[in-house]
Amino acid sequence: MTWTLPNILTVLRLLAAPGVAVMFLFFIRPWADWFALVLFVTAAVTDFLDGYLARAWKQESKFGAMLDPIADKAMVIIALLVITGFSGMNPWILLPATLILFREVFVSGLREFLGSKAGLLKVTKLAKWKTTAQMVAIAVLFSTGAFEHYFVMESFGMDEAMVASILSGGTPDELGLVWKYWGMIVSWWTGIVLLWLAAVLTLMTGWDYFSKALPFLRDAPEPEADRSRAP
């Protein structure tokens, strides 16, 4: 393996995947949410950058081609596990996350089964849009966690009537609860819509790959037994 800059960026992106979860072990929220968001977005940018540099500098390699989709899947899967856990297994997140994880495992199994013929399952433009939608949705949902914790911390000790009065404009908003509340709501629903869009694109690409692999999954017809001819 040649340690070119594109390959180094790909390796760093792979190492950043577990780092997203580690942020929640060493930092309290909402700092963990912000650190995870920055790390995830930075790693996602390298997904575009390493491929662009490899093509521009003619440094494409088998190692990079192998590791790039692995790094992408590791980032998405680990981030979805973190978000699903901290959302309290919310079905709006759990269902699309389950579909995405199922597709990734299914397609990986197809590629492993096909072996030398796995090149038939090349990354399509739709698959790239799928990955982009996944990463944007995850980034937005990480920001939701930060807004939510700021809102909870600033409204700590207030009863529901006081919070409702501030949000409706009846009481001066000295702590900025209104923009934190709307940041939480808008980022939540934006992230949910994008995550479901990513799930639909994920299923579409999974079906496309399955259709391409289907001819190689059929068993060959058994040859008919030779029949001896009567004299």
TrEMBL record:
Keywords per UniProt: Lipid biosynthesis, Lipid metabolism, Membrane, Phospholipid biosynthesis, Phospholipid metabolism, Transferase, Transmembrane, Transmembrane helix
Top class in the EC scheme: transferase
Protein name as it appears in the record: CDP-diacylglycerol--glycerol-3-phosphate 3-phosphatidyltransferase
Gene Ontology cellular component terms for the protein in this record: membrane
Principal location class: membrane
Membrane topology label: Multi-pass membrane protein
GO biological process, one term: glycerophospholipid biosynthetic process
Top-level lineage group: Bacteria
Organism: Limimaricola hongkongensis DSM 17492
